[in-house]
Amino acid sequence: MQQVLTIENLTKNYPSVRALKDLSLTVRKGDIYGILGPNGSGKTTTLGIILGVTNPSAGSFSWFEEGNGYHLRKRIGAMLDKPSFYPHMNAWQNLGLTSVIKGISSPDVTRVLELTGVDVYAKRKFGTYSTGMKQRLALASTLLGNPEVLVLDEPTNGLDPEGIADVRGIISRIAGEGVTVILASHLLDEVQKVCTHVAVLKAGQKLYEGQVASLLAGDDRIEISSDNPAKLEEALNKYEGIEKIEKNLPMFSVRLKDGFKVSELSAYLIMHGVDITHLAHNKGSLEKEFLKLLSEDRD
Ligand SMILES: Nc1ncnc2c1ncn2[C@@H]1O[C@H](COP(=O)(O)OP(=O)(O)OP(=O)(O)O)[C@@H](O)[C@H]1O
Ligand SMILES: [Mg+2]
């Protein structure tokens, strides 16, 4: 699968703080890639570097496996700062102007206004928009020129719950059209709801990179008990799909290796004559995993 972005060993030192240390990550075509981390963890710095507005101290990045030439920027739609539009102009006029500035030859203003739901109020002056309406127009603006990838920094900041749901819906719709999305957020919930992949940052370092689903599965546990714990334990110890067993009598807490299913384990136990009195599958939550990752000490 085509790599849309590769970042290799990025480091960014500011005079008083190291914002990024040896950060590497890979975004593939079609990913909705979340960069998740608390305030000050280096998310905006990372986006600034890959968009060419911040110079890295060390390391490199490559877009579309073609390097970091400025001409590649045309294939990227980005929303880093608060959107700035002319208050006395309506959405049509503002996006028309943006198209000219961006050098987009065939402005597809109608398409992006529809995609983001701005079409409904496109004839009103920007100065009269609510925060949510402004944010949608900003999203519309990033879509001009039909970019292959969107880079968004905290796209739902400052929005009310309805605005948040709207913007997330728009992002999902855009991704559904085949656009790769890279999204920085400090909100677990957002990444969980919107993203397929995630990199977790803490103090400029990557703690985790992978599928959101795998991070969630990271804490998957199966609790099992039996009237005959010795027999249960013996059977569990023989099962090839067991990653880890914790004994807390009368309960056993089990983690399965990748690719093994709970249903297979329970079938195996029944086949081996184990009389199961309790079997529960506790799925992990991203929040728990995230907090666990963040509480682990790293240099
Ligand atoms: N221009 C700058 N000069 C000096 N330090 C900076 C500059 N920009 C960022 N930093 C520092 O780099 C670190 C990372 O900042 P960054 O803005 O990338 O974090 P962030 O993850 O985007 O945080 P937030 O969630 O608050 O947006 C912070 O310690 C910040 O103070
Ligand atoms: Mg930021």
State the main characteristics:
Alpha-Beta Plaits, binds adenosine-5'-triphosphate, four-stranded antiparallel sheet, alpha/beta, binds magnesium ion, 299 residues, 10 helices, Rossmann fold, six-stranded mixed sheet, elongated, 13 strands
Task: Describe the protein.
This protein is an alpha/beta fold and 299 residues long. The protein has two domains: 3-215, 3-Layer(aba) Sandwich (Rossmann fold), CATH 3.40.50; 220-282, Alpha-Beta Plaits, CATH 3.30.70. The chain contains ten helices and 13 strands. The protein has helices spanning 43-50, 91-102, 109-115, 131-142, 161-176, 188-194, 212-217, 229-238, 262-271, 286-295; strands spanning 3-13, 18-28, 32-36, 58-63, 76-79, 149-153, 180-185, 197-202, 205-211, 221-226, 242-248, 251-256, 276-282. Strands 5-6-7-3-8-9 form a six-stranded mixed beta sheet, sandwiched between helices. The chain has a four-stranded antiparallel beta sheet with strand order 11-12-10-13, covered by helices on one side. α4 runs parallel beside α5 (161-176). It starts with a strand and ends with a helix. Residues 43-44, 153 line the site of magnesium ion.
